[in-house]
Design goal:
Shape of chain B: globular
Strand content of chain B: 15-25%
Oligomer: heterodimer
Number of strands of chain B: 9
Number of strands of chain A: 0
Radius of gyration of chain B: 18 Å
Number of helices of chain A: 13
Structural class of chain B: alpha/beta
Largest sheet of chain B: 6 strands, mixed
Order of helices and strands of chain B: EEEHEHEHHHEHEEEH
Distance between the termini of chain A: 47 Å
Largest interface: A-B, 29 and 35 residues
Helix content of chain B: 25-40%
Helix content of chain A: over 70%
Number of helices of chain B: 7
Distance between the termini of chain B: 32 Å
Largest sheet of chain A: none
Number of domains of chain A: 1
Strand order of the largest sheet of chain B: 5-6-7-3-8-9
Chain lengths: 270, 253
């Protein structure tokens, strides 16, 4: 238990809590809106922001926030115009964002070891300054979702009906994408870009089946994410493994266990 | 007595991917009417309703709902679609789903007011769903879901009520009860409902719109010669038999 007194462990715990909350809330919205691929596009395009930050020697987090918000608007503009082959367009931005990130890092003199921490996450090296940004973004995401909860619920459940009721669906959709982008940014530190989608989709996917309301689903997703993050963190410490990958492995195993459990249950019921 | 015009379509045309769905639609509906929109599947009935509600934009011509562009006034209407567009597994309770009908009237901010909740419960009682507030919508039967969608349309006390195939998953007894309820509601609101089944022109219906790419409006609850010609032109003839309440559907030819 004495490891809990180490500052970097305390930072890791704080970062884990903050990302679990943000991903539980936004992941639920992403899953019920069937936008997992869209969120994946924003998450990976955000890598362009990482490259940009290194290239211009700017502080990474604000730079990624700016870049991924820009990407969110771009994707939002494409979705709102109901472009055909939207999934293919998102694929293009997905690949392009990552490519820009890699090229910009290539052009930056000297290899940056830190880069890996954005790909796979490094919850054990989260600096205090990042924690503050994470905290502010978390507060913003929570506040915004609570304020527009009715509208998010309405558009997720029945988009056409929401339009008839006078809900401004276009600005709300953009807001949703920006919140996803912000959420991606604060999760990057914890599990990294490549594995972000798991925190976004696994817990909400499991929770949805056991929830009667969206709010219920968000709370359950947060609890599950916390469980994944801390069990993963403990195991990675115990067996000296990469923390981000261990967290996702825990989540993934849980996902399959739930499936096996449910299959057995339905077989038993005949 | 003067009655205001609640729906007006003026030379409206709607095409989807350059294929015409509706052509030259001219319809005027007055306050207090009880309109049945009939026509074959794929004839453009739902499209017509969506144009009136502003969910679709006409390719040509213009639409007025309650005297203004539908985008401005649609929140004063009640809308019961055939299905909710969300997935069946969506985590939402019956009460929450009905409360969504209060959007546009309720105040901004995170929560619905107690008045909203009271109203939602009252309307759920009206459609016979009292006591099922807390049930997950995904666990309801088809008929129960339709009653929830009806409650959601009624909870805003609309001036005009649109129902798209409201009888689809209801048995005959249920259909009669629903018509009786609509008949009572018609005393304080205009009602427009879509059906593909001409047999469902009940005693409450006051006028008929027949849609099959072109549109005929008839200010009486019967199918005119023009209408039957419009319907028969398709290779998909409709069942032109009235059942239930003794009532003439076909006009004298």
């Amino acid at each position: 238990m004495e490891i809990l007194t180490l500052p970097f462990i305390q930072h890791a715990i704080m970062a884990g809590i903050l990302s679990s909350i943000a991903c539980g809330i936004m992941g639920s919205l992403v899953v019920v809106n069937r936008s997992v691929f869209l969120a994946g596009g924003i998450a990976h395009a955000a890598y362009g922001g990482v490259g940009l930050a290194f290239f211009l020697a700017l502080p990474p987090l604000p730079c990624i926030i700016g870049f991924s918000t820009f990407m969110a608007f771009l994707i939002g503009a494409l979705t709102l115009r109901k472009r055909q082959r939207l999934d293919a367009m998102i694929g293009v931005l997905w690949a392009l964002g990552m490519a820009i990130g890699i090229i910009l890092t290539d052009l930056t003199p000297g290899y940056n070891v830190d880069l890996m921490s954005f790909l796979f996450g490094s919850i054990l090296t989260v600096p205090r300054s990042d924690l503050i940004v994470m905290f502010l973004v978390d507060a913003f995401v929570i506040g915004t979702v609570i304020y527009f909860y009715k509208e998010f619920l309405a558009t997720g459940y029945d988009l056409e009906f929401s339009k008839v009721r006078g809900v401004k669906v276009a600005p709300l959709h953009l807001l949703f994408l920006v919140l996803v982008a912000l959420c991606v940014v604060i999760t990057i530190r914890v599990v990294g870009l490549i594995l972000i989608m798991a925190l976004f989709s696994i817990a909400p996917y499991i929770s949805e089946r056991y929830s009667r309301s969206l709010f219920d689903m968000m709370i359950k997703s947060i609890i599950l994410n916390l469980f994944f993050v801390f069990l993963g963190l403990y195991l990675s410490y115990r067996f000296d493994l990469t923390s981000g990958a261990t967290i996702i492995l825990v989540a993934g195993s849980f996902f399959f266990l739930v499936h096996i459990f449910e299959t057995c249950l339905s077989l038993l019921k005949g | 007595m003067y009655k205001r015009t609640v729906i007006e379509l003026d030379h409206v045309e709607f095409s989807f991917n350059k294929a015409p769905v509706l052509m030259d639609v001219n319809v005027k509906i007055l306050e207090g009417d009880f309109v049945a929109i009939i026509g074959p599947n794929g004839g453009g009935k739902t499209t017509l309703v969506k144009l009136i509600l502003g969910l679709l934009k006409p390719t040509r011509g213009h639409v007025l709902l309650l005297g203004e562009r539908p985008e401005k006034t649609s929140f004063r209407a009640g809308y019961m679609p055939q299905y909710a567009t969300g997935e069946k597994g969506f985590p939402i309770t019956v009460l929450e789903a009905v409360l969504l009908g209060r959007l546009g009237l309720t105040k901004k901010g995170p929560f619905f007011s107690n008045a909203d909740i009271q109203k939602a419960k009252e309307v759920l009682g009206l459609v016979g769903m009292a006591g099922l507030f807390k049930k997950k919508v995904g666990d309801l039967s088809g008929g129960q879901l339709q009653r929830v969608l009806l409650a959601r349309a009624l909870v805003s006390d609309p001036e005009i009520l649109f129902l798209d195939e409201p009888m689809a998953s209801i048995d005959v007894g249920g259909q009669e009860r629903l018509f009786d309820l609509l008949g009572r509601l018609n005393e304080r609101m205009t009602i427009v409902f879509v059906t593909h089944d001409v047999g469902l022109l009940s005693k409450y219906v006051k006028s008929v719109i027949c849609v099959n790419q072109r549109v005929h409006f008839h200010n009486a609850p019967e199918i005119t010669k023009d209408m039957s010609r419009l319907l028969m032109a398709e290779s998909c003839p409709m069942e032109l038999v009235a059942h239930g309440f003794p009532h003439r559907v076909l006009g004298k030819h």
